[in-house]
Amino acid sequence: MAHPYHHALSSVKKWGGTVDDFIAVHAWLDVIWTGKAFLDLSGSDSP
């Protein structure tokens, strides 16, 4: 998976604006897509 910055660049090309307009959204989506946000909710004691 690409870095959120590169995804933000693609959004700039498609929608206009600046990278700063999209970087937070793509950083959040990166967390959701990799499942990191749900590791604490799994109930598992293993890493």
UniProtKB/TrEMBL annotation:
<dbReference type="InterPro" id="IPR054061">
    <property type="entry name" value="DUF6915"/>
</dbReference>
<dbReference type="Pfam" id="PF21866">
    <property type="entry name" value="DUF6915"/>
</dbReference>
<feature type="domain" description="DUF6915">
    <location>
        <begin position="2"/>
        <end position="31"/>
    </location>
</feature>
<protein>
    <recommendedName>
        <fullName>DUF6915 domain-containing protein</fullName>
    </recommendedName>
</protein>
